[in-house]
Amino acid sequence: MYKLVIQATEVATQNLKRLAQLVGAGEITAVRSGALAHQAFKLSPADPAQREAVASFCAEAGYDFAFVPYGASLSDIGLIAMDMDSTLITIECIDEIADMQGIKPQVAAITARSMRGELDFRQSLLERVALLAGLPEQALLAVYEERLKLMPGAETLLKAAGKVGCKTLLISGGFTFFTERLQARLGLTRAVANVLEVADGKLTGRVVGEVVDAARKAAELVRMREELGLRPEQVIALGDGANDLPMLAAAGFGIACHAKPAVRAQAAYALDQVGLDGVLGYFD
Fold this sequence. Notes:
- With 284 residues, the chain is α/β, with parallel strands linked by helices.
- Helix content is 39%, strand content 24%.
- Helix 1 (13-23) packs antiparallel against helix 2 (51-61) and helix 4 crosses helix 7.
- The two termini are 15 Å apart.
- The mean pLDDT is 96.
């Protein structure tokens, strides 16, 4: 049995009633009222066969929706795996680093094509990093201190997850300079990312070791899931780019967060209108 979860900054009562009619729900209940930065409601029970009609309605109304197994509880979740750039944080770090080099438009264009799945991620990363050669390492700190911001709702989600003993994995195609700082700041269990080579205080334009690509992201999730003895349905994964799709597919709750259209279309769940605290709306 399923429930339909509807989330947005504001949700009109008449729209909830219309959606309840669409899915055959007999009950409409507010979810985590006052604990989220937006409104969330569950309609239950809900017929997932009406997904297309619900998707059309919610697209017009500006609502996020999800058909979630009835009785899903956050206390059953043992692991949250998340991408960093444009998921846990609002920026693409490599684009902002490139801005320090005066080449943000060129690098950002490559980033966008890679995230849409139009370019091989590994090759595009190496090409972008090569353009950063000669940049002082100090520029990375400037990006972290001046430009990096957490995605709205991130701290609310992580705090709630921590209360139920959920472990966290930050797995990024970005760089350890940022993931290590975020891990310490947010108390994340594990962080994996690419290592930028530095010589004489400047970036060499090379990455040290294996590139964290789509396959590596999924493999790291599976490895940690197995270490913890969890089933896939006890795992949440969050991401926005094409290189996150295998990771999202390996989790019971694979959620596309403000994602590219191609990613949103393939993910089981999606958040577009609300912040990362919208994940909590799925769970009683």
